[in-house]
Amino acid sequence: MRQILVSEYLPEEHLSRLRVGFEVVYDPDLYADRPRLLEKVADAVAIFTRNRTQIDAELLAAGRKLKVVGRLGVGLDNIDMEACSVAGVVVVPAVGGNAVSVAEYVIGAMLMLVRGVFTMTGSMIAGEWPRQGHAFGRELKGMTLGLVGFGSIARQVAARAAAFEMRIVAHDPFIPSDSPAWQAVERVELDELLAEADVVSLHTPLTEQTANLIDWSALEKMRSSALLINTSRGGTVDEAALAGALRNGIIGGAALDVFASEPLRSEGAATFTGLTNLILTPHIAGNTYESVDRVARMIVAAVLEVLGD
């Protein structure tokens, strides 16, 4: 019986679908044990991964029977696409599968940062009444939202931001200027976006061109009250520069769900010590019960189609 390897979390309902016709080796922590991963992949015709299993030339050499990689997400940073192409291995990502979840996270982060009142529970329980100096946040209505990258997730963000009566601008050099996508937003250059936006939300892959795209120079171009939200890829923001900008009032606040090095270890976390105008979450913006199910359903179906079942 042909074998499918699942090296990260996949709900039982979807594992059951794979077990009809395949032997499934399920080990959601296998990504962390490289020698055993290379051993287990030897007999697999397919492998399911999230963002922690490294699919590279070494793994492909060990998995000579591999036909398809099912990526339970959209980012491809952990997958060597060129090596997969050379090996004849198909990669199927879950494009659009978690777009709603990420978009709602971005809106939620904006609301928390602009109001600045949702961290008062501890003070309230302690018997304080912290109205003075904290009760007057801002409204999203009338603000400018700048979207860096205008793919499926950014478009979901734009649709929701429009309901808050925000002005929406976007920058994406890979979308032609005559694309119908621009009917919903204003198309601007990156420097113009940074200068005008009250909220800058990143929606780009990590490439040579986007590595440290938001560095000290970019941060200095932003408004002193501006907010930065990154749910795209770690490494697109210079984290040390961002921490310095937050400490020195260069920008007003930030929310990061992705980091240059994940998990965020103590030395990385220390960069942000003492900052109160900051939200940090562990690469979870796209994870909701609905999106996990939707992505799994989508990728299981796609992998089975590639395998001819």
Relevant CATH superfamily of the largest domain? NAD(P)-binding Rossmann-like Domain
Order of strands in the sheet with most strands: 8-7-6-9-10-11-12
The run of helices and strands is EHEHEHEHEHHEHEEHEHEHEHEH
**CATH architecture type of the largest domain:** 3-Layer(aba) Sandwich
Top-tier CATH class of the largest domain:
Alpha Beta
Based on secondary structure, the structural category is: alpha/beta
Q: Please report the distance between the alpha carbons of the first and last residues.
A: 13 Å
In total, the number of domains comes to 2
The share of residues in extended strands comes to: 15-25%
Major sheet attributes: 7 strands, parallel
Radius of gyration: 21 Å
Q: DSSP helix count?
A: 12
Which percent bin holds the helix content?
A: 25-40%
Q: What gross morphology would you assign?
A: globular
CATH topology name of the largest domain: Rossmann fold
Mean pLDDT equals 94
Describe the structure in brief.
The two termini are 13 Å apart.
